[in-house]
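How a chain folds remains the central question behind the approach discussed here. In the encoding step, the backbone of a single protein was reduced to a row of integers, each denoting a local shape. We regard such an encoding as a compact summary of how the chain folds. The sequence in question and its structure tokens are set out directly beneath this paragraph:

___
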Amino acid sequence: MFTNKRFTLISLLLILALILVACGGSGNNSNTGESSDTDSDTITGTPLEMAMQGAYRGTIVTMTGPFTDEDEVKFNASIAEFEAATGIDVQYTGTKEFETTISVRVDAGNAPDIADFPQPGLLANFVADGKVVDVSTFLDMNKLQANYNQSWLDMATMDGPNGPIMAGVWHRFNGKSLVWYPKAAFDAAGYQVPQTWDELIALMDEIVADGDTPWCIGIESGTATGWPATDWMEEFMLRTTSLENYDKWVAGELPFNSPEVINAAEKMSELWFNGDYVYGGRAGIVSTFFGDSPKPMFDNPPKCWLHKQGNFITSFFPEGLQPGVDYDFFYLPGIDPAYGKPFLVAGDIMAMFNDRPEVRAVMEYFSTGESVRAWLAAGGALSPHRDTNLDWYGDDVERGVAALAQQASSLRFDASDLMPGEVGSGSFWKGMTDYVSGSVDLPTAMREIDAAWPR
């Protein structure tokens, strides 16, 4: 009797299992985007629109990048509403060894679905190997062109084995083309913020005539000494030659010893090597720690009045200073009107390694300002998206930097971060330091930088 009951029970279970299989099952499949409570066949739209309708609820998207500690917390907070609305679990793992980790994972065939690259040059290597999904195959290019300055799209376009692809979408950035000044003292002195290069030169000469020194500059940074000089060179390249030449320079097709690069360096030297223009003179530039270099602006009276650096530099200012009261900033003016108002940036580009519907949805989300809205409110990020409202920024300085970037005619990424490491964080840093210190002349410095380029 017991045996017959057991046989009957087993038979019923088998019949039930067959019925479930025939009906397609009720389990969730994270690789297809199917969900237990939503029929994705009845939902239409872009990947993001479908995600918002629940098409991919219960799926998982893996991510890695350099965000750790506070930045990781802010990133996770910035995607929390998306996860709640879509039911997609974005599992982010941050690491300070990102460059090494991502290479190992991709080479092992274990790439995350999405990776955040702060150095597009590294991403370009994976694109060249055919490892990265072309996001233009599923994102609406008209929407992208409407929501980004064309320069962002240009910088996301990289060469794959079968031609150029759009290697990702830009998510956040840092602004570099900024000149900081001690606002309270500046206003009291009657100085005016310059709008053109000629007005900047006139301001510098006015400060000199008043018996003071215009610029605070320092490039000492331990083993990274020289990197602030590379930022200055990038600014002058953008202001004295075309974007095409800038891009060729980054790619190694326009050598450092070319007339265009030499001209930019000479234009920079007119400012840096004028003993009246720089606090501490030429020797002081090399010996002064970059984080200490702006501090003399806040002496009473100021020992120097202008400092060019990215928006992160405020963390090195003396404590207790109020933005908009004790200090402020303005855009470093263009030199040649033919090249417009270029803006130098660094930032993060999101790239996709695995092509599934839910991954497409996350990538589309990253192409919107909403994806960084919570981060903007918390501080520590700038949005490259045109649909970002400046009111979303919780920090007045970051709001102002974002506004300047929105007004730029073009943008380009930090060149040294795009160049091969042997150059960008090697011979370029060293060559500029040697030149500024006076140990070599300009042609020699440029030739030595070129010599390190991998062939």
About this structure: Residues 1-38 have pLDDT under 50 and may be disordered. The chain has 20 helices and twelve strands.
